Amino acid sequence: MSQQGLDAFTHLAAPVRQALSERGFDQPTEPQRKAIPPLAEGRNGLVVAPTGTGKTETAMLPVFSAIADRDDVEGLQALYITPLRALNRDMRERLDWWGETLGVEVDVRHGDTTDYQRSKQADDPPDVLVTTPETLQAMFTGKKLRAALEDTEHVVVDEVHELAASKRGAQLAVGLEHLREYAGPFQRIGLSATVGDPEEVGRFLTGDRDCAVVEVDAGSEFDVQVTNPELTPDDEVLASELVTDAAVASQVRTIDDIVGENDSTLVFVNTRTTAEGLGSRLKEYGTDIAVHHGSLSKEARIDVEDRLKSGEIDALMCTSSMELGIDVGSIDHVIQYQSPREVARLLQRVGRAGHTSGEVSRGTVITTRPDDTFEALAIAKMADEGVVEDAAIHHGSLDTVANQIAGVLMGFGEISARGCFEIIRRAYPYRDLEQESFKEVVRELADNHVLWLEEGHDRLEKSRGTWEYFYQNLSMIPDEQNFRVVDMASGRTVGTLAERFVVNFAAPGEVFIQGGEMWRITNVDEDDEKVQVTPVEDPGGEVPSWTGQEIPVPYDVAQRVGRMRGETKSAFEAGQSRETVAQGMAEEYPTDEHTACEALDPIERHEPPMATDETLLVEAYGREVVLNACLGHKANETLGRLLSALIGQQTGSSVGLETDPYRIQLEVPSGVYLGDVVDLLFDTDPGHVEPLIELSLKNSDSLKYTLAQVAAKFGALKGWKGGRGFGRDRLLEALRDTPVYDEALRETLHVELDADRASAVLESVRRREVAVETVGERTPIGLGGHASGQELLSPENADASIIETVKERIQGDRMLLFCLHCQEWETKRQVKRIDDPPTCPNCGSTRIAALNPWADEVVAAVKRADKDEEEERMTERAFKAGSLVQGHGKEAVIALAARGVGPRNAARVINKLRDDEDDFYRDILAREREYARTNAFWD
């Protein structure tokens, strides 16, 4: 063993040093060299290093050493907590080897552990127990396990950065303080990927106690190239074969080339939808690749993991689930398809390559359009400079407080309110929790029969409701309703589909893609929440959509893109050619001149002032107003909601809104002009952003959806699964002045949105620190947003069977018909049984409102003389629908029967000139897709 190895390993007990020699460890990795000495002394520690650098042994060797040094060790000595339900098999094998060699018993406990194994662990606890944050909560409820926890001396938390940014992590932080009540002080060791604020993550881990932070520079052994593939003459031919466009065909070809040059490749994408779409194109091309994401069945995921590790396949198409160190063997190269959106994500993903052989981590980012390229280059440069995002610790969530009050009661049976409050306050995310907020949460739990609170006394007691609540809410991961996808031929579960996708698109005969394979739906069983399918050969299948999967671009990345835009624009204004500017970019950033040239095209063509890190540009044409702002996803979404709410308030009309990290696109009513939007930027009080956004959210599906999730965690809505069949409007009114509502609003304003950043931007505008420019036309940069994004499988390529399925579904749907003239006739009929034009049998009028079959309250609102504001809106909507039907007959009924297509969008579909009836249904399908994608954010 080398002297360098001795320097770190001499801190370990003799049996561990002997085992190191047997295992072939002649010298430590860099994290081990730096971290083992303080950890062996018993200090708390956070180890920040890329995947594959021996982090597990870095944490566990000092723990095994301490256990080996103790005489007559009994009880549970150490917990290894991982966010993954199933510890990766390679890590399990390594821990088992160390345990067997050192005579230390290592066992695993999670949701799938058998009752027999659980009982055995309670009677005779292992020395080291590998578990999840949720299972730790459950361990407090067993008398024998609580006794075993008293012996805990060490807790290792893997992927602590991933946990710290979520309510799941806040739950764990309190759980560790709960554990301290039984075990007393214990050593805490955290393992983290690269983050911008390691000291803050250390405070999260330890409850702001002493912590040795050991950081290994991820960027030093890191080689990444950004490329937008150059089109070849063959790509047009390839595109027709793959049912896509030439640009996507060139990307598929490039990915295939890189996979062919390496033995083992991971191809990361940002969404499951992209994984399925791109994966199917690559398989069609002949690439030896499989698809891996969280909506595929566990069996399917394990199968492809094993096949990549054994060399049966060359590559794996994967999403963020593969960032967490799942064992797939040695990786030679990582491809990132489209910008990774965050610096930390790029480092984590590309960091998966090369470590086992001690080589540099190599990766390629394949970009698809100018925004994408600039963003990827900005991220790669920031990674090289060591500028990484903070971990964004999730502070102060009140539903987690509610959950943990019940958790503490499950452990203690009863406890003083003061004692419970102090346990929670020790957890770092709750160091600022106010006593009054805690009391409000307690009172809410008592009202919901989750605990027993005797008024005037300081005692919290467990009740029957505590048990029921606790086991329904072990996890802080929100319940999402999913349907199982079952292959009828084999009976195996292929994966899951989000309820929203099933409701909007799934019908017998429809073709979709999952696991990179084509499936045709044969039956949808809503009671059993099951979609039965058969495999088909069809390149035109629908790609499923899953909710909540978009990775937001942070403010700092968007600002860097703005700065790059400004620098390149200045170079053009100084007279440099595009080739010269591209050459300069290729020298400064990890890219080639072709990629730089393509990205520079809209900037060279952009004549007016440009939106940069210091300038906002408002452009307008007709009813379209675009605020170009390099502020990132959350700040732009917040400002967009604010502007649309204020314009809507002033005009009484709805405002269309679409945002991305660099643009806020508004479709404004007639009479609203560019200058009106500029005035709002200068005149809106930055201090009023939160209340104004709250006002705009009051009828939004996004707040109601979050409220339902939070209410379930407070025990106010038992057994909630996706909110089906429950009136969210009634829920909102019932909970408006409660901590449940406060928490849902906090999460929406400060987690989903960024009200603080939006306020700061408005303040900078007022102080003239950020310039606001205007132009009365659409610009190349302004037009470069979502509309220019490429679809891997275009809607127009939907095959005839899908169009026929849409027709059959709509013709079979029921509609409520109501005569707006006499207001006496109403009926519910299938669309195919409705006359053309629909006519009232009582008065002969053709002014018939075609409404959803459950819209009886709309009919009641029309008939009512004294209407409130909501009923006025219903009435207006009914009369708009009636006008459409009167003017266009049954065609309007069909458009109105589509899912999520109201009178306004139905009018757009009807008024579009077309020769083919199938195109009419394609337009309807496009509107339904748009609704499914955006409906959670509509007011």
From TrEMBL:
<dbReference type="Pfam" id="PF00271">
    <property type="entry name" value="Helicase_C"/>
</dbReference>
<feature type="domain" description="Helicase ATP-binding">
    <location>
        <begin position="36"/>
        <end position="213"/>
    </location>
</feature>
<keyword id="KW-0413">Isomerase</keyword>
<dbReference type="GO" id="GO:0140097">
    <property type="term" value="F:catalytic activity, acting on DNA"/>
</dbReference>
<dbReference type="GO" id="GO:0004386">
    <property type="term" value="F:helicase activity"/>
</dbReference>
<keyword id="KW-0238">DNA-binding</keyword>
<dbReference type="InterPro" id="IPR014001">
    <property type="entry name" value="Helicase_ATP-bd"/>
</dbReference>
<dbReference type="InterPro" id="IPR011545">
    <property type="entry name" value="DEAD/DEAH_box_helicase_dom"/>
</dbReference>
<keyword id="KW-0067">ATP-binding</keyword>
<keyword id="KW-0378">Hydrolase</keyword>
<keyword id="KW-0234">DNA repair</keyword>
<feature type="domain" description="Helicase C-terminal">
    <location>
        <begin position="251"/>
        <end position="399"/>
    </location>
</feature>
<comment type="similarity">
    <text>Belongs to the Lhr helicase family. Lhr-Core subfamily.</text>
</comment>
<dbReference type="InterPro" id="IPR045628">
    <property type="entry name" value="Lhr_WH_dom"/>
</dbReference>
<dbReference type="InterPro" id="IPR001650">
    <property type="entry name" value="Helicase_C-like"/>
</dbReference>
<dbReference type="InterPro" id="IPR027417">
    <property type="entry name" value="P-loop_NTPase"/>
</dbReference>
<dbReference type="Pfam" id="PF19306">
    <property type="entry name" value="WHD_Lhr"/>
</dbReference>
<dbReference type="GO" id="GO:0005524">
    <property type="term" value="F:ATP binding"/>
</dbReference>
<dbReference type="Pfam" id="PF08494">
    <property type="entry name" value="DEAD_assoc"/>
</dbReference>
<dbReference type="Pfam" id="PF00270">
    <property type="entry name" value="DEAD"/>
</dbReference>
<dbReference type="InterPro" id="IPR052511">
    <property type="entry name" value="ATP-dep_Helicase"/>
</dbReference>
<dbReference type="GO" id="GO:0006281">
    <property type="term" value="P:DNA repair"/>
</dbReference>
<dbReference type="GO" id="GO:0016887">
    <property type="term" value="F:ATP hydrolysis activity"/>
</dbReference>
<protein>
    <submittedName>
        <fullName>DEAD/DEAH box helicase</fullName>
    </submittedName>
</protein>
<dbReference type="InterPro" id="IPR017170">
    <property type="entry name" value="Lhr-like"/>
</dbReference>
<dbReference type="GO" id="GO:0003677">
    <property type="term" value="F:DNA binding"/>
</dbReference>
<keyword id="KW-0547">Nucleotide-binding</keyword>
<keyword id="KW-0347">Helicase</keyword>
<keyword id="KW-0227">DNA damage</keyword>
<dbReference type="InterPro" id="IPR013701">
    <property type="entry name" value="Lhr-like_DEAD/DEAH_assoc"/>
</dbReference>
